Amino acid sequence: MKRRQFIKSAFGTAAVGYIGGAVGILFPDEAVAFSEPTGFWERDRIITFRRPDTGENGVIRHFSRREGGYLQDGYRQACWYLRDSKDNNSVAKMDIQLLNLLYAIQEWARMAGKTNPVMTINSAYRTRRRNAQIEGAALNSMHVAGRAVDITIRGIENWQVAEMAKHFNGGGVGHYNSFTHVDTGKLREWRG
User: Fold this and answer.
1) Is the pLDDT of residue 163 over 70?
2) Domain ranges of the chain
3) Structure confidence at residue 38 (pLDDT)
4) Crossing angle for the helix pair 8-19 and 96-111, nearest 10 degrees?
């Protein structure tokens, strides 16, 4: 089994680990939401988001079992919303596993009873030119490859978002004071 494949049991494992007493991800009274994680990967995969830099708010639905799996229109829409809006609205092919990871984090919050856990996308795809202009950005940043986003989620602390992301073993997780970085590169974690 490859670690990037978000299989059905991935969520179940994280949920059971949480119910067993992992501290700090979500409040104890919210743990009851994880008693029925069945169907997590079979339901429509929806990401509710906002982009402060463009003023956009929206919903990305990139997967529907009823409609045959991954949705081409939803994927194209996701690529547009995750574009580099600061460099000529440049669009890239975003990693579908990144979209699955964003869905998983947000759906976990929904199942735990968080009302309207809108995901704020602070940075997603970056052109090489713009990435080079960002202080501290890695030369081979996963943002340049369409495999990273910097997010916050309404009602959830950034360190909690980072802890949730780590449970899915999707790639890198960086915890910063003002956002959480998630990517689909090698498994690693850091504090910025």
Assistant:
1) yes
2) 8-191
3) 62
4) 40
pLDDT tens digit sequence for 106-160: 998 998 889 899 999 999 999 999 999 999 888 899 999 999 999 999 999 999 9
Q: Look-up: residue for tokens 């700090």?
A: 24
What type of residue sits at position 147?
Answer: R
User: DSSP H helical segments within the chain, as ranges?
Assistant: 8-19, 72-81, 96-111, 128-133, 158-167
**Residue 65 in tokens:** 């079992």
The pTM of this model reads 0.83
Gyration radius (Cα) of the chain, Å: 16
Looking at the structure, give the CATH architecture of the domain made up of residues 8-191: 2-Layer Sandwich (3.30)
Q: Is the dihedral of CA 188, 178, 14, 20 positive or negative?
A: positive
Q: Side chain identity at 189, as an amino acid letter?
A: E
